[in-house]
Amino acid sequence: MDSNSNNKNNGKSEINQPEILNIYSMDNNELDNVPLGFFFGLVARQYLSFFDKYLSELNINPNQFWILLVLCQEQNISQDRIASLLRVNGATVTRELENLEKRNLIMRKIDENDRRRKLVSLYYKGFEMLESVQDVDWETESKLLNYFSIEELHILKFLLKKIIITIEDIQK
Q1: In angstroms, how far is the first alpha carbon of the chain from the final one?
Q2: Entry's InterPro entries (predicted)?
Q3: Which of 37, 42, 68, 92 has the fewest CB atoms nearer than 10 Å to its CB?
Q4: Contact predicate 127/104, CB 8 Å
C-alpha cells in the first residue's frame, strides 16, 4: 500500500456510499441505496422553505401556524399538551406562544386546578390569522401536489401515517 492511499482514508477501509447528492439522475434501483432519512430531511427542508416564503408575507412562521391549528381544534389546552401534540420541546412552544400573545392572537391564563400550568386559547384575531394561513397552506399544498393523482396522494398519506405510527411504537 502506498502512503498516498493510506492518507486518503486514514488507514480505514472505504465505505461504499451512494452519491445521494445525485438523486435526481438515479433510477429506482439506485434509489434503493439511499437512506429514507435523507429523503425525509430533504422533503422537510424543501417544503418548509417553500411554505415559509408564503408564511413570511403574513408575518408568521411554521411553528406558530401549527400552534394556531392545534388551538383551533382544542381550546384551553396546556402548553405541555401543545408541545406533545406537535412533537417539539417546551421551550419552543413557550417562545412561540410569547410571540403570538404579543400580537394578541392567543391568550394564556393560569389553570385554576393547577396553578403551575398555563392554559392557552385563541382570540378571535387568532382565528382570523389561522384562516389566512390555512388559505396559504392549501394554496402551497395544491401547487406542490398537483403533480400527484388522488390515488397517489392517498397512498402517500397512508404510508406517512404508517411511518409515524411505527416510529412512535419503536420509541415506546
Answers
A1: 48
A2: HTH_MarR-typ (IPR000835), WH-like_DNA-bd_sf (IPR036388), WH_DNA-bd_sf (IPR036390)
A3: 37
A4: no
Grid cell digits, residue 77 = 389546552
Instruction: Provide φ and ψ at 115, rounded to 5°.
Output: -65, -10
Cell numbers placing 163: 411511518
Quick: pLDDT tens for 13-64.
555 555 656 777 777 788 888 888 888 888 888 888 888 888 888 889 989 9
| Domains along the chain with CATH numbers | 59-172 (1.10.10.10)
